[in-house]
Amino acid sequence: MDEIMELGLWQMVAAYLFIVVLYIILKLRGIEREKELLISTLRMTLQLVFVGYLLAYLFENNHVLWILLIIVVMQLFAIQNIFKRVKHPLGRKLKQIIILSMIAGTLASIFYFIIVVVQVTPWYEARYFIPIAGMMIGNSMTGVALGVQRLVEGMHDQRNHIEGALMLGATPKVASKKIVNQAFDAAILPTINSMVGMGIVFLPGMMTGQILAGLSPVTAIQYQIAIMLGIVGCVSITVIMFVQLGYKAFFNEKSQFRNL
Amino acid sequence: MFTLKEVTYNEILHIKELHIPGEKITCIVGESGSGKSTAVKLLNNLISSDAGSIEYKNKPIHTFDTIDLRREVVMVPQTPIIFDGTVKENLLIGLQFSEKPFVEDEKLHAVLETVHLKKSLEESADQLSGGEKQRLSLGRVLIMEPEVYIFDEPTSALDEATEDRVMGNIIKEIKGNQKTAIIITHSKKVAQTYGDLIVEIKNGQIVETKEISNHG
Ligand SMILES: Nc1ncnc2c1ncn2[C@@H]1O[C@H](COP(=O)(O)OP(=O)(O)OP(=O)(O)O)[C@@H](O)[C@H]1O
Ligand SMILES: [Mg+2]
After folding, report:
1. What does DSSP say about strands B25-29 and B73-76: parallel, antiparallel, or unpaired?
2. How confident is the model over A21-69, as pLDDT tens digits?
3. Where are the domains of chain A?
4. Residue B59, strand partner residues
């Protein structure tokens, strides 16, 4: 079966039956989630259809400007999402540090991956650039959001310890070292753990898609391994940049602890 | 050592004038919430005043590098802070933070003796009782041998006999080395026994400064 099987209209309708089943269960049990279910299904469908056509267009019309526009949109979305996900006020300085580490960390990783690892020419080949950038930015977004959350909480909960260290003559860097390490750890742990389950607990979406679409599993896996390593690297670089700079937002120029 | 003039902080403090002499023990007393802890945090630059002047060694405090200042003017906070690790690690951490060379175990044992803490160096510090943690945090600062000691209610968790012994030892050591100490205390007895100067704070203002001349 080397040929790619396209799904026809009725086959798609059959797939939507899964949602109907869930809808009926919700109705019968009186669980009030139907509205969310319908909206989510609709959004998923519309978004994917839109992205499908968009990608088809972009793959046909490779242009560096399109790629640049897409990076900007992805970054804006990711940064906005980090701000929204963290349940604490962040303050101007910390926000600037989040923006800086997201942009610098992901761009460095994406270009290294495209140019050195996959060796795509031209570098802005949409077929490669868009999924790779999407995965790296998406995973870094999750990592940084976790890191921000832990850093802010740690600084808040351990304020007495930090001030205790300052009173003993510690620099802000030394005083907050433990919290910075904990935030880094919390931020990269899910990414590290996701490597363990790879291929056994779940086949990642990208790979499943490629295999179903007819690519050899061996090639799909090569890409999957490379992208997984790329994601680990990208998340680490982004998060380490964030925590190394982020703790500074909690101190003023006189090395006094300050609230955000 | 310190001279404060017309110092205000956040509606909490209004200090017209205060002089804290060098090589003496200054005790600060006053009811809870009167601003004692806030006042001493101005002296190691943990906070900065909104207005007024604070001088340390006759120079405005803001001309000192903050970190260097805190290595000279070391404060023990009201709630003892214990870091992860053993008694030994907790004793040494002040030297580590202030980038000073470590001392031999012999010295550590001597300090434990001074603060009357009968614990082995290898014991885990988070299992100590409240009063033991307080004494550990005092010992940690004695090892650092700073120019100025600030103690915020150093014996609040100790019984009277232990308080006597520990304070007696600490004061003897500070006086012997001709260092300066500022002690916030609720104990009239501690203030009377050890203070060369007693400063009373009420509602953020200094209401009385009394020199005690029968000792020191
Ligand atoms: N960072 C702060 N922001 C606002 N108010 C504060 C702050 N720190 C302390 N205060 C307030 O300032 C007042 C003085 O506090 P401070 O801790 O100096 O009192 P204290 O004299 O040390 O009391 P105690 O004997 O109970 O320790 C209190 O009313 C306290 O609520
Ligand atoms: Mg106090």
Report:
1. unpaired
2. 999 999 999 998 889 999 999 999 999 999 999 989 988 888 899 999 9
3. 1-58, 62-250
4. B56
Q: Identify the residue whose C-alpha is closest to ligand 1 atom 29.
A: B33
pLDDT, tens digit, for every residue of A147-198? 999 999 999 999 999 999 999 999 999 999 999 999 999 999 999 888 887 7
The distance from CA A105 to its chain's CA centroid, rounded to whole angstroms, is: 12
Does the pLDDT of residue B100 top 90, yes or no? Answer: yes
Interface subset of B 144-203, CB within 8 angstroms of A? 144
Confidence of residue A83 (pLDDT cuts 50, 70, 90): very high
Instruction: Provide the pLDDT for residue A197.
Output: 77
Q: Are B7 and B56 in contact (CB under 8 A)?
A: no
When pLDDT is cut at 50, 70 and 90, the band that residue A223 belongs to is: confident
Nearest to A167 among B62, B77, B99 (CB): B77
For B45, which of A161, A164, A256 is closest by C-beta distance?
A: A256
Structure tokens at A40: 């989510």
Q: Which atom of ligand 1 is nearest to the CA of B39?
A: 18
Amino acid sitting at position A38: L
Dihedrals φ, ψ of B56, to 5°? -125, 125
Interface contact A167-B66, CB threshold 8 A? no
Q: Ligand nearest B201 Cα, by number? A: 1
Phi, psi of A198 (to 5 degrees): -50, 125
Q: Are B67 and A165 in contact (CB < 8 Å)?
A: no
Complex-level ipTM: 0.94
Model confidence band, residue A7 (pLDDT cutoffs 50, 70, 90): confident
- Residue B119 predicted with pLDDT over 90: yes
Residues with CB under 5 A from ligand 2 (ion): B 37, 78
Q: How far apart are CA B212 and CA B216, in angstroms?
A: 9
CB B144 within 8 A of CB B98: yes
Best probe residue, ligand 1, of B9, B36, B201 (max atoms within 8 Å of C-beta): B36
Cα(A136)–Cα(B112) distance, integer angstroms: 54
The angle subtended at Cα A48 by Cα A47 and Cα A52, nearest 5°, is 120
Give the Å distances, CA to CA, from A158 to A178, A180, B44, B154: 10, 12, 20, 21
How far is Cα B71 from Cα B22, in angstroms, rounded to an integer? 17
B185 lines ligand 1 (CB under 6 A): no
**Is residue B44 within 8 angstroms of chain A, CB to CB?**
yes
Cα B79 to ligand 2 centroid, rounded to whole Å: 9
Residue of A170, A178, A256 lying closest to B47 (CB–CB): A256
**Are the C-beta atoms of residues B205 and B15 closer than 8 Å to each other?**
yes
